[in-house]
Each structure stands twice: as structure tokens, then as C-alpha cells.
Amino acid sequence: MGLIFFSFGISVTINVQHLGIHPWDVLNVGLFEIFGLTIGTWNVACGFTLIIVSWILDKSYIKLGTFLNAFLVGMFVDLFLWLDFLPEASHSWTDAILMGIGIVVMGFGGGLYNAARVGSGPRDGFMLSISDKLGAPIGRVRIITESSVLVLGLILGGPVFIFTFIFTFIQSPIFQFTFLRFDKLINQIQAKYHEKHLTSSRASG
């Protein structure tokens, strides 16, 4: 469900991409504009490329969720765009509202799927692997990586504008809030399950 929400948010922002989108999506759209295929296909291709690099650097960040993220996000983005039910850009103030909704949904979805703790996404895993290998702060690695991706996407003709630069400042707090809430909820559910299972075992014994 987290990956579906995350993909939905990406699709909403892509429909109003003239306001600027996330650096990784700038790259995907730029590759799409130059080479064709679909935006989701390039999302998958970039994801699996990063998984290969992360696998070489540090296998510990590669888990089931990493592969699910790499494959399903691109697939769902293409599905949502293909269904063509999302609002189109009107080039008015309402586009900023749509962009805000997309970013909020992405933050919510990101926090939800990370709370499941089945593995980091390929992009996060890649940056964490680089951070561990170089002994550099993850924040610095993220800035350098996403800035490099942004420049490459810009060269390829990807959409860069004001929201590209404020994306993280909106998405990150929502991600953190959602992650902490769902992580706490999952821990409570697991604790109740183990307590119930332990009680049943003692009763049957």
C-alpha cells in the first residue's frame, strides 16, 4: 500500500511537472524525452542499476522491499498515467495545490512502506551504501547524489523549477511523521500478537 501511495504521488507531480519535480523524477522524465519508452520503465531501469551498485558496495541494504520498490513504483506510475484519470496541468494556481497533494502523498507513502522494514528503496540503499563506504554523513551524500542526478536530468531536458528545490523540505517531515506513527502501530500489533501467542502456548501447555 505504501508503494501504491508513493507511486500515485509521483504520478500527480508528473502531471504538473512544469512546476518542477523531484530530482530522480527529473532524470526519469529527461530519459523518457530523449529515448522514449515510458517514465515508469526508466524508473525501473535506474532502480535496478542502483541495486547492482549497492550490491557491489554493501549487500546489507538489499532486501525484498528493495526489489519491490524498484519494480512496482515504475509499474504503478505507468499505470496511473495510462489510466489518465488524474487532473491535467491548468497552468494556474490550482497546479500548485496538485503539486502539494502529490508531495504529501509521496511522503505518506514513503513513510508507510519504510515502516514495514522490508528493505530500503534502491535510491536510499544506494546512498546509504556510499555513505558507509566513504564514511561520509548521509545528509552530505544525499545532497551530492541528488544534485548530480538533477544536473544530469536537466541536461537531458527534464523539468526543473521551484518545486524541485523545495520538494525535500515538504516531503521529509511528512515522511518522518508517517514513518514514526506506522512504525509504532506495527510494533504495538506485533507485541499484542506475541503476547497472545505466548498466552495460548502456556494455556495449551
UniProtKB/TrEMBL annotation:
Membrane found in the keyword field: yes
Protein name: Membrane protein YczE
Keyword Transmembrane among record annotations: yes
PANTHER family, per database record: INTEGRAL MEMBRANE PROTEIN, INTEGRAL MEMBRANE PROTEIN-RELATED
InterPro entries: YczE/YyaS-like
Origin superkingdom: Bacteria
UniProt keywords, alphabetically: Membrane, Transmembrane, Transmembrane helix
Parts of the chain that traverse the membrane: 34-57, 64-85, 97-116, 149-170
Annotated organism of origin: Virgibacillus litoralis
